[in-house]
């Protein structure tokens, strides 16, 4: 500790003298006090001053003359340059495209919407991350570190991880994917953004679910697409409505297994109609399958990509929900003709997730750890979902729960005329990370409501969360 204290004093003396020199209080050519005198004056050890003088000399602020003393250098500016006014800096204009991108909504996250906040929608529980198993895999990877693990990442993704992802998809989703057509991404969002940039020209119409995934909608908007809001109901995207609204759309962004936020899953009729439309229109389908592992009613649905025979579907998945968002690891399964272009487009802005992190995930999957971990999470989240629904029914009758059959959130409907924005503010002030239902719409919402997550709300806190929500509705509505 004394060493740290001495270093701190030395730095303080250095900064005091440097500021005096640059401000002109110690003019160019003037002589500094002898180190012993200055040390006595300011109450520090002489060595502290000597070291500060040596640093000033090393950085060119002073010149030491043997037998004469230490003098302020004569080749420095007379004063510290004035800082540019903050307003002048802030006024630098963006390009029209930059201004558009800067205005695109990314999420509804409020000041308490973090991994530990109650009712945070779509966020997994951080305490369920398999830290011990992940640490063992990390140790094993480091012990047998391959040369490529410390090199620049393979822009398509580590081959061993792409093979592991292909095996995982075949076993859990019934999707047969060639590792050569898989690209490892920094989550689903990056896959959506790269695909949008690659496949859309400014002004191209693109279908989006309404209500739908906010950040996905933003990825298309940032690429210059003209969004076509297509109604989404209890069965997901209304394909017939999309064809009526924009039959020549260039692309459709859909979540066939679990539409956000209502949770609708596309039945087989709509799936086949969507694929038929894409084939006839020469359009692309971006399939967002970020949380299909968590289904609470009925059997898991196969991906739309598993029915694709025309090479029109880009399947996007992630490990953010099943492991942790902080890993920033996802993937895209692409039609073969698109793969090289997708890799090149992604590489222009990002060479890919860290190879070491990819190697650890590949080892985690190869050791058979991912499947059991997902089953544990599914069991725990089912309990949390049931506890929250019971808590809402008992303590918050003002909110009618529309329980989605899948995913990590649910929608509650508020009474007509309730101030949705006021309720959201009141809830967040009580530590509840709820989102406004209206934010998921492109246009006016059908009715006021809230989107609630249950994964970050332990069973023991479900009743308390419901009571807080009831108080927020009374206060803000």
Report on this structure.
There is one protein chain. Helix content is 42%, strand content 13%. Helix 1 (2-23) packs across helix 3 (46-58), helix 8 packs parallel to helix 9 (214-222) and helix 14 (370-395) crosses helix 16. It folds into three domains: 2-72, Arc Repressor Mutant, subunit A (Orthogonal Bundle); 131-368, Aspartate Aminotransferase, domain 2 (3-Layer(aba) Sandwich), CATH 3.40.640; 372-476, Aspartate Aminotransferase, domain 1. With 477 residues, it is of the alpha/beta class. An eight-stranded mixed β-sheet has the order 3-10-9-8-7-4-5-6, with helices on both faces. It is built from 16 helices and 14 strands. The protein is globular. It has helices at residues 2-23, 35-42, 46-58, 86-90, 96-102, 131-143, 159-172, 187-199, 214-222, 239-245, 268-281, 336-347, 355-366, 370-395, 420-428, 462-476, and strands at 62-65, 69-72, 182-185, 205-210, 226-233, 236-237, 251-254, 284-288, 313-318, 330-333, 400-402, 409-413, 435-436, 449-453. A hairpin with a 6-residue loop joins strand 11 (400-402) and strand 12 (409-413).
**CATH structural fold name of the largest domain:** Aspartate Aminotransferase, domain 2
Biggest sheet features = 8 strands, mixed
**Helix proportion range:** 40-55%
Q: How many domains would you count in the coordinates?
A: 3
Please tally the helical runs, counting DSSP H or I stretches of 4 or more residues.
16
Radius of gyration: 29 Å
Which CATH architecture of the largest domain is right? 3-Layer(aba) Sandwich
Strands of the widest sheet, in order across it, are: 3-10-9-8-7-4-5-6
| Unreliable stretches | none
CATH class of the largest domain: Alpha Beta
- The secondary structure category is alpha/beta
What is the β-strand count? Answer: 14
Q: CATH H level of the largest domain: which superfamily?
A: Type I PLP-dependent aspartate aminotransferase-like (Major domain)
Averaged pLDDT: 88
Distance between the termini: 56 Å
User: What's the SSE pattern?
Assistant: HHHEEHHHHEHEHEEHEHEEEHHHEEHEEH
Shape: globular
**Percent of residues in beta strands:** 5-15%
């Amino acid at each position: 500790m004394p060493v740290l204290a001495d270093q701190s004093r030395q730095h303080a003396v250095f900064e005091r003298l440097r500021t005096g020199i640059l401000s002109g209080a110690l003019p160019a050519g003037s002589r500094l006090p002898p180190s012993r005198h200055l040390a006595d004056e300011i109450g520090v050890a002489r060595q502290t001053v000597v070291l500060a003088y040596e640093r000033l000399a090393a950085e060119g602020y002073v010149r030491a003359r043997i037998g004469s003393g230490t003098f302020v250098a004569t080749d420095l500016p007379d004063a510290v340059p004035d800082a540019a006014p903050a307003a002048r800096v802030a006024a630098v204009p963006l390009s029209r495209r930059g201004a558009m991108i800067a205005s695109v909504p990314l999420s509804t996250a409020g000041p308490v919407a973090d991994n530990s906040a109650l009712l945070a929608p779509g966020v997994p529980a951080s305490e369920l991350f398999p830290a011990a198993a992940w640490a063992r895999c990390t140790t094993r990877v480091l012990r047998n570190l391959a040369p490529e693990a410390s090199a620049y990442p393979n822009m398509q993704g580590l081959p061993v991880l792409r093979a592991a992802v292909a095996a995982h998809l075949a076993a859990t989703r019934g999707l047969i994917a060639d590792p050569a057509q898989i690209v490892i991404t920094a989550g689903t969002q990056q896959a959506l953004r790269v695909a949008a940039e690659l496949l859309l020209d400014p002004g191209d119409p693109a279908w989006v679910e309404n209500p739908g995934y906010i950040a996905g909608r933003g990825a298309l908007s940032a690429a210059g697409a003209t969004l076509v809001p297509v109604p989404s109901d209890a069965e997901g995207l209304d394909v017939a409505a999309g064809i009526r609204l924009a039959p020549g759309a260039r692309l459709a962004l859909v979540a066939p297994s679990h539409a956000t936020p209502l949770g609708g899953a596309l039945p087989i009729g709509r799936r086949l109609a969507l694929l038929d439309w894409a084939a006839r229109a020469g359009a692309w389908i971006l399939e967002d399958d970020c949380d299909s592992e968590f289904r609470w009613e009925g059997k898991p649905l196969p991906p739309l990509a598993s029915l694709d025979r025309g090479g029109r579907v880009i399947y996007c998945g992630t490990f953010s929900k099943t492991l942790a968002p902080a890993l920033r690891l996802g993937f895209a399964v692409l039609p073969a003709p698109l793969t090289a272009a997708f890799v090149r487009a992604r590489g222009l802005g990002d060479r890919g997730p860290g190879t070491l992190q990819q190697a650890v995930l590949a080892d985690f999957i190869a050791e058979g750890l991912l499947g059991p971990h997902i089953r544990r999470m599914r069991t725990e989240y089912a309990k949390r979902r049931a506890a929250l629904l019971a808590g809402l029914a008992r303590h918050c009758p003002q909110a009618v729960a529309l329980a989605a059959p899948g995913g990590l959130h649910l929608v509650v409907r508020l009474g007509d005329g309730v101030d949705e924005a006021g309720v959201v503010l009141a809830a967040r002030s009580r530590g509840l990370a709820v989102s406004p239902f209206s934010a998921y719409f492109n246009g006016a919402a059908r009715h006021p409501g809230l989107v609630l997550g249950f994964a970050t709300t332990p069973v023991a806190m479900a009743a308390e969360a419901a009571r807080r929500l009831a108080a927020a509705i009374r206060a803000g509505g």
